[in-house]
Write a structure and sequence with these properties.
Belongs to the D-isomer specific 2-hydroxyacid dehydrogenase family. This is Glyoxylate reductase/hydroxypyruvate reductase. The chain is an alpha/beta fold and 304 residues long. The chain has 2 domains: 118 residues, Rossmann fold, CATH 3.40.50.720; 164 residues, Rossmann fold (3-Layer(aba) Sandwich), CATH 3.40.50. It has 13 helices and 10 strands. Bound molecules: (2R)-2,3-dihydroxypropanoic acid (DGY). The site of (2R)-2,3-dihydroxypropanoic acid has 7 residues, from loops.
Length: 304
């Protein structure tokens, strides 16, 4: 029997890190890469039943949706769906899914890596070993302690609504206000999803509440932090450092002021990028797509 067709982006395109997982998808589907689709829309449009998307690489807009009469699902890799207009997509009778929980551990690992790398100046140390012009350690190579420090997590609220025993088990306390969290924390880690409520949630007012020796770590979405305010806070030494997996735009232009500030680490949104997590993510996308095509309950359906 002929396999159903899916339209996929970034599998093999620049940054197409998921290319090695194509065989897992091809067991069930014929993949039409977006570039081929654009060249021969008339041959493929009616065949495509699902879109596989990672982040905002493919704009799922009115015109694309109108051009795919048999589309049943937009299957997102990753948990964040801020790049998808779900009411618009659902309006075409098309379901949306994501891959929650699959990404939790890898994203938490990148948050901890950023915290430790920033505190202990790992990037500077590496650059010193590799590129030094003199053997003298500059004073700026002194980091800050992580042991004994307070980590404030913005976005852990849902977990913290669980019983108090769970708070105690992880040694955490629920902060009733963001002000309290910002004032108490040595490291502030942002993990909320991007929504109209969290857009530029951390701005000038919030930086003014943070400790001068504190570090901002963002592993959620770039737009949760006001980047201009962050540049100013760092330049005025209102906070010690920033370590970011996410920015706007991504990647940052190489002449962006953030990249010129010492004590800033910027990664190109790689929180989920491990072989293991990516494999499970792609498998989960396949499961969601198969369920959508069969007209059954989609395990990870995201509703508007
Ligand atoms: O949303 C997620 O899960 C990650 O940021 C990957 O896009």
């Amino acid at each position: 029997m002929e396999k159903p067709c899916i339209l996929a982006t970034t599998l093999g395109a620049p940054g197409g890190i998921y290319k090695c997982f194509e065989p897992c998808i091809e067991k069930h589907f014929t993949i039409i890469p977006y570039e081929r689709f654009v060249q021969r829309k008339e041959d493929f449009a009616a065949k495509i039943q699902a879109l596989f998307v990672w982040g905002g690489a493919l704009k799922v807009d009115q015109s694309l949706l109108q051009s795919l009469p048999n589309l049943k699902a937009v299957v997102n890799g990753g948990v964040g769906v801020d790049h998808l207009d779900i009411p618009l997509i659902n309006g075409f009778g098309v379901k949306v899914s994501n891959t929650p929980h699959v990404v939790d551990n890898a994203t938490a690992d990148i948050g901890m890596s950023l915290m430790l790398a920033s505190a202990r100046k790992i990037v500077e140390g590496h650059n010193f070993s590799k590129f030094r012009e003199s053997d003298d350690f500059p004073e700026s190579s002194l980091g800050t302690d992580v042991s004994g420090a307070t980590l404030g997590i913005i976005g852990m609220v849902f977990y913290m609504l669980r019983p108090e025993s769970e708070e105690r088990a992880v040694g955490a306390t629920y902060c009733a206000s963001m002000k309290e969290l910002l004032q108490r924390s040595d490291f502030v880690m942002v993990v909320v999803n991007l929504s109209p409520q969290t857009h530029k949630l951390i701005g000038a007012k919030e930086f003014a509440m943070m400790k001068p020796n504190s570090t901002l770590i963002n592993i959620s979405r770039g737009l949760v932090v006001d980047q201009d305010a962050l540049v100013e806070a760092l330049q005025k030494k209102m906070i010690r450092a920033a370590a970011l997996d996410v920015t706007y735009p991504e990647p940052l232009p190489r002449d962006h002021p953030l990249l010129a500030i010492p004590n800033v680490i910027v990664l190109p949104h790689v929180g989920t990028h491990t072989m293991e997590t990516s494999q499970i993510m792609v498998e989960r996308m396949v499961t969601n797509a198969l369920a959508a095509l069969a007209g059954g309950q989609i395990p990870d359906e995201v509703k508007a």
